[in-house]
Amino acid sequence: GIEVYYIGTLEAEGVTTVKVSDAEEGHHKMEELLKSKEVDGAVTMHYPFPIGVSTVGRVVTPAKGKEMYLATTTGTSSADRVEGMVKNAVYGIIAAKTCGNPNPTVGILNVDGARQTEIALKKLKENGYDISFAESNRADGGCVMRGNDILQGTPDVMVCDPLTGNLLVKLLSSYTTGRSYEASGYGYGPGIGEGCEQLVMIISRASGAPLITGAIRYAAQLVRGKVFAVSAKEFEAAGNAGFKEILAERKAAEKPAPEEEVTAPPKEVVTEQIPGIEIMDLEDGVKALWKEGIYADSGMGCTGPVILVSDVNMEKAKDILKKAGYIN
């Protein structure tokens, strides 16, 4: 069973009340209970996680009632967006494995930084880290997820930045109540990060009793599954696959911006699309092809930004963009 301690002033049968006079005293008491290991975990509305620690939320998706982990929803894994999302993928895997899924599938939400995150994670997989990528339910597939994949819970772990993840928890937990009451799911989840060894689960002021119940159950699963042991094992495995080196390499790599003014080659009909490029890199990618004598144009497909080239130049253009680090 689960033994619940309530920090506050209310009392209820079956619950141990730890009396405090205000929120500040309550926060200190929670820290004290965690540090002394009198409690195994805590569920709270606010907690100042350090940089490098962020929370893995858990929701029930509406289309099929499937559970999905959102990595991440609060906190900041890194000041660098892409590095943070790469770390979030590992954090999500840790949460899912601890809760009993030995081989969770990972999808990357189609937000800014998704393609660079994909490149880094696929390098990690090539180097031996055990990661299974989900396939989008869209016809074009791939591990970059779209809106319908959120609703259907296509991946077990959805990787995103914490601001987007926070929004998704709010939407998916309160879409039946008009936003004011989070009625389903498990909340914003536990803080996970290298060296983090206190289990703190986050909920919000809008979290209702069903969600708080879910958060307590989520915490119990993490305790029983030995989350910190799983965490240490995953960080070691990622480290052995060059996790830090891949992140450092990505930061150090500078895409070859044209040194001189680049003039477009003679215009030609462009009918082929090259997807998988970040929106911020789109124009630079086009100019990189111009520099090689290939006419290209930029566009926006239904799955995101694309570079348009002729059928004849398609394969050559892809090779140039891959070598320059614009696409995977």
Automatic annotation (TrEMBL):
Q: What Pfam families does its record include?
A: FA_synthesis
Q: Listed GO molecular functions? A: acyltransferase activity, transferring groups other than amino-acyl groups
Question: Which Gene Ontology BP annotations are present?
Answer: fatty acid biosynthetic process
| Signal sequence region | none
Q: Return the InterPro entries for the record.
A: FA_synthesis
Annotated protein name in UniProt: Fatty acid synthesis protein
Q: Which organism is it from?
A: Muricomes intestini
